[in-house]
Amino acid sequence: MLPEKVKVGGVYYETKTMPTVRINHDRNYMGACDYTRLTIEILEELSDERKEDVYAHELVHAIFNEAGFDEHDEDTVTRLGKVLHQVLKDNTNFFCNKKENDKRAKEKGEFNDNKNHPC
Ligand SMILES: [Zn+2]
Q: Choosing a second label site near 82 at 20 to 30 A (CA), which of 22, 47, 56, 64?
């Protein structure tokens, strides 16, 4: 399942599942990352696994863009996207901050519902 949004650098990219994905009037794409509108578009008809694969690829484009790279070598993005997909999928709690979140919420007296927390 794709996240609704992802924070990359200082901005959030919103995920949009679309019946067609267009880049420069060409509609023959499975995904696209728009650095101006801050969206990652994914083709609706793809299988769930392919959606994740394409999403990881577009996420690498977002990461490269936020890191200041204007030119993205497509082969490099594809290779990194494949590995990023596996790393994100197989290590969901890699940098989990549950304890810090609990502590911060308690100090501020905020409601902290962890029932959907992955840990
Ligand atoms: Zn690409």
A: 22
